[in-house]
Each structure stands twice: as structure tokens, then as C-alpha cells.
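Long-time lurker. I teach an intro course on protein structure, and each term I like to show students one example going from raw sequence to a predicted 3D structure in C-alpha cell notation. This year I'd like something fresh instead of my usual example. Would anyone be willing to generate the C-alpha cells for the chain below so I can use it in lecture? Attribution to the forum is fine with me.
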Amino acid sequence: PFVDTSTAAVEMTDVIPRAAQDKQVNNGVYVQPTEDGNFGLDKDIADNAKKKYDIAKEQEVRTWIEKVLDEKLEDGLGALEFQKVLQSGVVLCQLANKIKKDVCKLPRSTSQPAVQRENISFYLKACEKLGMTDNFIFMTDNLFQESTGKVELAMMSVINNLCELKKIADKSSPAA
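-- Reply from a regular --
Happy to contribute to a lecture. Here you go:
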């Protein structure tokens, strides 16, 4: 028997409904990607990280920082907003120096990422001098994450660091 193969090769755009052409197919189900284009396992990880981000813990840490520094931090809760507040490293260095005078090199205020990273490294060295264990020391890159899901995970490391710093401060000076 003769089979006409000229119509057998069908374009994907002919099969997938127009509204779903920009979506990924997952076992026959159309899946909407995250804002940064993640699908599948990457999307699942990002979704789980968002669920695990502890906004109450962030608020607790923000309140403590404001009390210690005696100044109000920028408004806006959430991983990205908190990241912006801490990214320059200035707040972190000021915080360490309030806990123990001159434990941290003085930070430079700038929008240059290389200098901001240097400020953060000053802070992390100060944390070590204050007796913080390695498992609470975050990576400088944690304050420069941009992709959804990863920023939440990275900022939880930063928040855990700050919670540990608060414990250290409370031990050395219960009024801090």
C-alpha cells in the first residue's frame, strides 16, 4: 500500500495550541516556566526554596539590626529586598563593629560590585574573629544571587549567619 508521507511531518506549531507555544511540555502537560525560564527540576527547586524562605526570621533579624545600629533599614520584606539592603556590605560591617569595636575593617560605600564583595569579605572575617563557626559563614556570592529560588536559598544562609551573630552578641553583651 502507498502511504503519503508529505503530510506526515507536522510542524510543532500545528500541534501545540497557540497560547501554549511558549510553554514547556512535561508528560503532555503544558508547564509555565518561572520568571527566569526554569522548567522541570530547576523550577521545582526554585518553588521549594520560595516555600522555605522564612519571612518572620527575616523580620526578626531586620528588627535586631535596626536596634543595634539605631537606624531604620530600607523598607520591603522578601529575599530580594533584604539582599539589596545588605549587598554593599556596609550595614554588615557597621553591625560587626557595633558588636565589637574595630573587629571589622571600615567599609567603603560604592555601587561597584568588586568593592561591595570586599566589604562583605571584611564582615565575614570579623564573624570568624568573633568566634563564629564555619557552618554559619555564608559565601560572598550569596548576596549577589539573581535567579528565582536561588536568591531565597542564598538569603536564608545570610539570615542564619545574622541569627548566629545575634547569639554571639547576646553572649558578649546581653543588652545588644
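Some talking points for your students: The chain is about 50% helix and 5% strand. Residues 8-14, 16-22 have pLDDT under 50 and may be disordered.
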